[in-house]
Structures are given as C-alpha cells and as structure tokens.
Write a structure and sequence with these properties.
The chain is built from 16 helices and 14 strands. The protein is α+β, with helices and mostly antiparallel strands.
Length: 591
C-alpha cells in the first residue's frame, strides 16, 4: 500500500522548532550587537533630549533672489550638511517667505552642525600677500613638515608649518608642501596679484605690503592702512573684514591658526570653490599624516590649480602661500613648493576627524544660494518633552494592561501565546531602534512613541485573527492539532492583507510629510514589518508546539480552547468499512 503524501501543513507542523531557534538567534545577535556598539538606548529627538532651535533670515546676494526655489535649495543643503555630520533628527523647514527654522537635537556633533547650518560656504582661493599674528600675539612654534616635504619648515612668524598640500599617493604629480590649520586646497593665483616686492620671509610681519590690484594707488593705500590697523583678536573687527571683499579685488581677512589669530592681506580670488568637484575626509593609514581632506577638481579647476601652484612655487614666503577663504575667514594658508597637476589634491596635517569631516562636508554639499543671518538661537530643554513622554508611556501602559486583561479573560491559556509574542515584538522593536540610531540617524521623538503604542493594537489584532480561526475549526468538530494547521492559511492571508494596508499607509505618510510626523510613520512601518516576522516565526510555531500538549490538546477549560464552551459539533469521524466480503443485513436480534 502506498504511503500517504505529506501535505504542506504536515511539513510546517513537524518542524516548528526551527523557526523558534531562528528568531531566538536573531534576537541574541542583535542584542549582542547593541551592547558591543555601546548604543544600549535609542537616540532621542529634540523634544525628548533637548537641543537648539535656530531662526535664520535670508538675505539676497548679487545674482540671487529670495524665492521659493532658492529657499528649497537652501533647506536641502542644510539638511544634507547636518545629516552628513551624523546628527540625528535635525529639522530644517521654511517659515514664511524668507525664514528657515532649524532644530538640532543635543548630542554628537550638534555644535558643529549649528556652526555649519547657516554657513554660506563661499570658498575662494586667494594669494597671500602678507600675514602676521594679530594683537601682539606670539605665534606658537609649529613642528616641521611631515616626510615628503622637499623644503624647510616655514619661519616661526608664519602661521604655516604643520600641514601639507600635495597630490594624492600614487599620482604622477609631484608633491608640494603646505602647512597650517587649513581646510582645503584650491586654484591658481591671478596674474594681477603679484607678490610683494619684499619676497623674503620677513615680509610676513613687515606690515607694509604692496598689493597689485586693479584699483588705484588710493585704494592700495587704504587697504594697507586697514591691514595695519586690523586686530583680529577682537570679534567686532573680525565680523567687519572678509565679508565685504569682492572675489576680483584684494581684501583683508582673519584666520585662527593653532589657536592664534592672524591677519591677512589677500590678493584677488584665483579660483572659486565651486570648481572643487568632490571632497572627502580620509585617514592616512600608510603614513603619519593622520586625517586629510582630499579633493577632486573639475577640468577647468584642475588647469587653474596646476597653473597657480606652479606660479606660487616660484615665490618665497609669504608669496608662495594661498589663503583658503571660507565665508570671509582664512581657514588655511598652505605654502606650495612644486606645481600640483592631475586635478587632485589633499591637505594633511593636524586635522582632527571632526575638522576634516566638517570641511569636506561643506565642500561636497556646496554653497547656499542665499546668505543667512541668525535672528534667534534658542536652547530647547527636554523638561516639557519628558513630561509628555511620561504621560504617553502611562497611557501606553494603561492600554497594554487593558489588552492583557481582555486576552486573559477571553482567551485564557491562549493569552500566554499572545503575551509572549508581544514581548518578543517589544524586544525586537527596542533593539532595532537602538541600532538604527548610529546606523541611519534615527531618533525617537514623541510621535514615534505614539507609533510604537499604536503598534500594540496592530500586533494584538494579528493574534486575535489567528486564535479565532483556530476556534472556528474546533467548532467544526476538529481536534486541536489539525485545527491549528487548517486555520493558519486563512489567518495568514488576513494578517498579510491587514499589515500590507498598515505598511502602505506608513510609507505614504512618510513620503508626503516632514519633521516629526515622519517619526510616527517610520515607527509604524517598522512595527508592522516586525508584526509579520513575529507572527510567522514565533506565534505560529509556538502554537504548533502547544497543540501537542495535553492541556491545550484535550481542551482544558482554562486553555481557551474548550470545545464545550465554544459550542463545538460532535467530532468528525470517518466511517470504517469492514475489510471482509460484503455481508448481508444483520439481524439485530442475532437471528
């Protein structure tokens, strides 16, 4: 006689332990990763952790107007800047026609994000005509340049001396030493920005440069007088210089190098920062340079950069230096010894990781189309959010207790399956939220907490659907084990359709909304996916195992599956035909 074929239900029924072991391994692995990463709690948003709220007012520049397109571009760039620094849940939104509101949660890199968010990031490379410590400050001695520098270190009065600008390793271009607390490298020196007649290193502090520019002698004298009187140690004077200088004209500027303020006399801009195609922070693992900023130039920028470095290399200090001017501030003044060709360059030296990433971030994401002025900077405390969170958690706890009471009263023994499934879902949700913080910058805010509370109902609904299908099968007169397997296909279809609708709603809500509402949508979508995982890999296999236990299989009155209380029909039995030859009617009296 042929063996009976195993159905799909028999296959899934026979090995429920595999699914339970699989989900247990996943929980242990993710929990271990959470502890090893050091992020044992979810990141909190600004409404729970506190932070800074900044109001920026747009100002029109030459060639740019305050309109919706420029404002939307500015919002996008600001968002990418703070996200590039790893700041979680920063909000950047327009308010009215000319204001942008930025909310930066308290946490890692939040201060750097606050500094960058409204920075226009207009970058120019200008030749240095003269520079000296400002306000009588004494320059700190700088260490000699790293290996690969073909010349001597800069003189003690120079702000340069601890960073190198060169072609990347493996490039055919010769290296060129550059030093300072600098950020980036740029392009060529304009022909009309000729060096000072005193080309010796002592011109650094001569105080009497003679810039050659398109303006007349009166403009030159005025600029020299402004340079001589400039004191960069005073914030009020720093705010006045640099910003007003046009790219095609010489200007004065300030820069902080090795914690000492220097004043600079700069020639016309040689190259615009927009000709930097890409910038990234990398760590030099093969040398002693530490963190570097590597840049790739556009085709036109590469030619200009090769030309300017070739011209600068012919001069002596300070005329062999170029100032990297970011929003009017000199952030670096490296010197060049040889031409750098090939369209690639790097600045290395005393960069910290944050400094290198900060500069490469601004260069990569470009300049804002408008200038912005900070109107208000407000520190947001987490006290109000904490009270609201406490109220929300209390409401969630009350709702959970009511769900538990309902499950125990109505489903009795089956409530243990539901509670165990809710516990597994809660563990997975917490661990994943903790891991998503450092991974993608996810931050838990009040709407996200609401989404997690709503998920309790979604998860409980899936259990109820499955339990009711099982009860329907028992009412039809089937025993528990076949009832569990026959109920699963119908319950599975209903659960998938219901969760698909919830997930689709979460996706649409996430796409069409901004700000904190996205936190609600993200949490709702995440918990919906976890509901499917828990039901398929935990609830169903656990129910299959419990169906083999006498307490549930025999329909104990506290199991929640008592056939009598469910109004079950008599058991379905097959009529067994006699195996012998067909007999005639049997006389009931035995006659």
């Amino acid at each position: 006689m042929a063996a009976p074929k195993k159905g799909r239900g028999a296959s899934t029924q026979s090995k429920p332990g595999r699914s339970l072991v699989l989900i247990l391994i996943a929980i242990v692995a993710m929990t271990g990763g959470m502890f090893l990463s050091g992020h044992t709690t979810p990141r909190l948003g600004i409404d729970l952790a506190g932070g800074t709220s900044i109001t920026l007012k747009a100002k029109a520049d030459q060639g740019s107007a305050i309109n919706k397109a420029n404002m939307d571009t500015a919002v996008d760039i600001m968002n990418r800047r703070v996200n590039g620094l790893g700041v979680s849940e920063a909000e950047v939104q327009t308010q009215g026609d000319d204001h942008i509101i930025v909310n930066i949660p308290k946490g890692t890199n939040s201060r750097e994000a606050q500094q960058q968010v409204g920075t226009t990031a207009k970058l120019y490379f200008r030749p240095v005509l003269a520079s000296e410590p400002s306000g009588g400050a004494t320059p700190k001695p700088s260490p000699s340049t790293s290996s690969g520098a073909s010349g001597s270190p800069s003189p003690s009065g120079s702000p340069s001396g601890d960073q190198k600008a060169s072609s990347p390793a493996g490039s055919a271009s010769p290296t060129a030493t550059a030093t300072s607390q600098g950020r980036a490298v740029s392009d060529a020196l304009k022909a009309d920005a000729t060096p000072s007649p005193t080309g010796s290193p002592s011109a650094k502090s001569s105080g009497a440069p003679s810039p050659s520019a398109s303006g007349g002698s009166g403009d030159t004298a005025k600029l020299q007088a402004q340079y001589a009187a400039l004191d960069c140690t005073k914030p009020a004077e720093r705010a006045k210089v640099g910003q007003s200088g046009k790219p095609g004209e010489p200007t004065v500027a300030c820069g902080e190098i090795n914690k000492v303020w220097y004043k600079y006399l700069l020639g016309p801009a040689a190259v615009d920062g927009t000709e930097v195609k890409k910038a990234q922070a990398v760590f030099d693992t093969q040398g002693a340079s530490g963190w570097q900023v590597q840049m790739n130039f556009t085709s036109s920028g590469a030619k200009k950069f090769a030309d300017i470095t070739g011209e600068l290399a012919k001069n002596q200090q300070p005329q062999n230096e170029f100032g990297i001017v970011l929003d009017g501030d000199v952030v670096s003044s490296p010197y060049v010894q040889q031409a750098i060709t090939g369209g690639q360059a790097e600045i290395s030296g005393r960069f910290t990781q944050e400094e290198a990433q900060s500069l490469s971030n601004m260069l990569s994401y470009g300049a804002l189309p408008l200038s912005f002025q900070e109107e208000t900077v407000t520190t947001v405390t987490a006290a109000l959010g904490g009270e609201q969170l406490q109220a929300g958690l209390i409401a969630g706890a009350i709702g959970l207790v009511l769900v538990v009471i309902y499950l125990v009263a109505y489903y009795r023994g089956l409530s243990l399956v539901a509670l165990a499934s809710l516990l597994v879902s809660a563990i997975l949700t917490y661990v994943i939220m903790s891991l998503l913080g450092p991974a993608i910058g996810f931050a838990l805010n009040l709407p996200a907490v609401c989404g997690a509370i709503v998920a309790i109902g979604i998860t409980a609904d899936s259990f109820i659907v499955y339990f009711e299908r099982i009860r329907d099968e028992i009412r039809e007169g089937r025993s528990l084990r076949p009832a569990v397997e026959r109920a699963w296909p119908r319950a599975r279809r209903t659960i998938l359709v219901s969760d698909f609708v919830s997930f689709l709603s979460a996706v649409v809500l996430f796409i069409v909304t901004v700000g904190k509402v996205q936190g609600f949508a993200f949490t709702l979508g995440l918990t919906t996916v976890l509901d499917v995982v828990v039901v398929f890999f935990f609830t169903k296999p656990l129910m299959t195992l419990l169906a083999r236990r006498r307490f549930f299989a025999d329909g104990h009155k506290w199991s929640g599956l008592d056939p009598k209380s469910l109004g079950a029909k008599p058991p379905l039995r097959r009529t067994r035909r006699p195996s012998g030859p067909t007999a005639g009617p049997v006389d009931p009296k035995g006659a």
